[in-house]
Design brief:
heterodimer, A: alpha/beta, Rossmann fold, 2 domains, 29% helix, B: alpha/beta, 6 helices, globular
């Protein structure tokens, strides 16, 4: 690999703003390119003209490729791949970065195999040492981590959500924006989207919550999960769950935190009856403070926790919720008095 | 209709992490007592998906395809006992050091050799590498439409209909066969092997192929592009402050007070 690193970031959008993961990847790309005079380009697939190009330059992209095609209104990997493959063949970036999202995880292996590039998924760190890229990722269900490198000139990598500090938006940062004609022919797509049903309903998004209450096996059933909900209501938090709690039907799979679920990084994380299995912890280990309640003093969760209680969640929670409520009310009364 | 389910043998992912050990010198898992090799759970669910298609009335031949060491034959027998029809092991003692590209290349060559395959199923990712590369990689090599993260599969009239699990939506898609589908855990519980099926599984056909037979270079990893430099268990140096109390009430009050002091709420 040459000393210069040319990075292509594949952007994802939410309406007319960038997805948080894209801002995080641009942060990583800028740090990587910054030290060694590399370049950061970004590509976005948009159904119609909008401000995404400017958003990408404001987040640090020097060059933006905007590919427009009404077919991009439905996001399937098939729709992005022809244009993305063509762009990569034309520009020959040395590193292609995608989010480890359903979209990114679908595209990365396909693109890499088409281009004889290396593919490394769900990375949490990338460094450049001795002219070689090294990527860190978790494996064995989060029990271990590996550092990998590649034989190839080109690397396609997906990046775990919330593993990188995002770039800050700076509208004085300008870059070049090029519009590309899409080569995607909708009539040739093999996978057709028939319908979409929302999975999530009321309440704030787990990924965005500042306080997350995680329900584990130790809550011993839906009555225990009801206590987690109550604590969440008091702390204005959101309730997540371990895979075990979902498998047992106590919590919906939409709330599953971990390797095959959602990644969260709240300021405060309550692990209630959560053992601390690797596959769960990869989804929450960036939390600011972890507080664990578990009846097993040897549970792995305590090794991740700032505060711990050895005991039964179902016994402790009602009293604890009451205490938290009291303190919050006192605090509110005090603030009110000061005004 | 012929369904090929690709399965991988992995170290039991349910093994407790406190006992899980790694030899950091050589970068390998230490086979401590009690740690066994099992079929990767997501792949087991891919098998379950195939069996449910049969339960729903589809006439299927279900072939289990595995790239792994010769010890994986035992794992394949276990999968045959769930109700699959035949097993094929591409045996390679060095399979453990294969990367996604190499594994997909070998499995794709095996699928071509099998021939006339209508549907290829895999788990969403293997429970050891957690990479999720082989499924879409196979689709790229075999030029099949790829549908990932399936929780429901229906087959009708040379077409497949899948319900996919996305972050905010369930998405229903259709694709022509042949196709490749990866299965996610939202599919639900896999069945257990009955004693009768376990007995029957012993007599089911099992083929053992080598990488060379598939027309690929005989070495372990003909197409490996990713090299592991280091494997380690991350250190957890968070020191945990344990809160205790004379009574539950006392404990609850102390914990709330302590978190409040820290400005956590």
């Amino acid at each position: 690999m040459t000393t210069v690193i040319d990075i292509l970031v594949v952007a994802e959008t939410q309406g007319d703003v960038l997805a948080p993961i894209t801002c995080e990847i641009l942060g990583l790309a800028n740090r990587l390119a910054g030290g060694i005079g590399g370049t950061v380009a970004a590509v976005a697939f948009v159904p119609e003209t909008d401000n995404i190009g400017e958003e990408l330059t404001a987040h640090g992209a020097e060059q933006v490729y905007l590919v427009k095609n009404p077919v991009f209104a439905t996001c399937t990997a098939d729709t992005w791949l022809p244009d993305l493959e063509k762009l990569v063949r034309d520009r020959q970036p040395s590193l292609i970065l995608l989010g480890h999202t359903t979209m990114g995880a679908d595209i990365a292996p396909y693109l890499a195999f088409r281009l004889n590039a290396a593919v490394i998924t769900d990375s949490v760190a990338i460094a450049k040492k001795d002219r070689q890229l090294t990527l860190t990722r978790s494996c064995y269900g989060g029990k271990a981590q590996e550092v990998v490198t590649s034989h190839t000139e080109m690397v396609v990598a997906t990046i775990r959500a919330k593993s990188q500090p995002a770039t800050t938006r700076d509208t004085t940062h300008k870059g070049k924006i090029a519009s590309l004609d899409s080569i995607c022919d909708p009539t040739r797509l093999r996978v057709k989207v028939i319908g979409r049903q929302p999975r999530r309903h009321e309440g704030q998004r787990l990924e965005d919550a500042e306080v997350v209450i995680a329900a584990g096996r130790g809550l011993r059933g839906v009555e225990g999960v009801a206590l987690a909900n109550e604590l969440a209501a008091v702390l204005n938090g959101a309730v997540g769950a371990t895979r075990a709690a979902c498998d047992m039907g106590w919590c919906p799979y939409t709330s599953q935190i971990g390797l095959s679920g959602i990644t969260v990084a709240p300021d405060l994380y309550f692990a209630l009856g959560v053992s601390g299995a690797g596959q769960h912890m990869v989804g929450c280990q960036s939390a600011g403070t972890i507080v664990a309640v578990n009846n097993d003093p040897d549970a792995a969760i305590f090794a991740y926790s700032r505060f711990g209680v050895v005991g039964d969640c179902r016994e402790i929670l009602p009293a604890f919720i009451e205490e938290v409520r009291k303190l919050k009310n006192q605090n509110r009364a005090k603030q009110h008095g000061e005004k | 209709m012929h369904v090929v389910v690709c399965v991988k043998q992995v170290w039991d992912p349910e093994f407790p992490s406190v006992s899980f050990k790694i030899d950091e010198e050589v970068g390998e898992v230490i086979p401590v007592p009690g740690l066994s090799q099992v079929v990767s759970p997501y792949d087991e669910q891919a098998v379950e998906a195939a069996l449910r298609l049969r339960d729903a009335g589809a006439k299927l031949k279900i072939t289990i395809l595995c790239y792994g060491p010769s010890s994986a034959e035992h794992t394949i027998r276990g999968v045959l006992a769930l109700g699959a029809d035949e097993g094929i092991l591409v045996a390679d003692e060095a399979a453990e050091w294969s990367d996604g590209a190499s594994t997909a290349t070998i499995l794709a060559a095996a699928i071509r050799k099998i021939g006339n395959c209508d549907l290829v199923l895999t788990g969403r990712q293997a429970a050891d590498t957690d990479a999720g590369v082989v499924g879409c990689g196979l689709a790229a090599i075999l030029d099949l439409p790829a549908i990932t993260l399936a929780k429901e599969i229906q087959i009708s009239d040379r077409k497949i209909r899948i319900v996919r699990v996305l972050a905010d939506h369930h998405e229903t898609v259709e694709a022509p066969l042949p196709a490749l589908v990866t299965v996610t855990h939202e599919l639900g519980k896999s069945r257990y092997a009955s004693l009768k099926e376990t007995m029957r599984a012993r007599r089911k056909p099992m083929a053992c192929w080598t990488v060379t037979e598939l027309g690929l270079a005989g070495s372990a990893t003909p197409a490996a592009r990713v090299v592991r430099k280091k494997l380690f268990i991350p250190r957890r140096d968070q020191s945990c402050e344990f809160i205790s109390g004379a009574t539950t009430q006392d404990l609850a009050a102390k914990l709330a007070q302590r978190l409040y002091q820290e400005g956590l709420f």
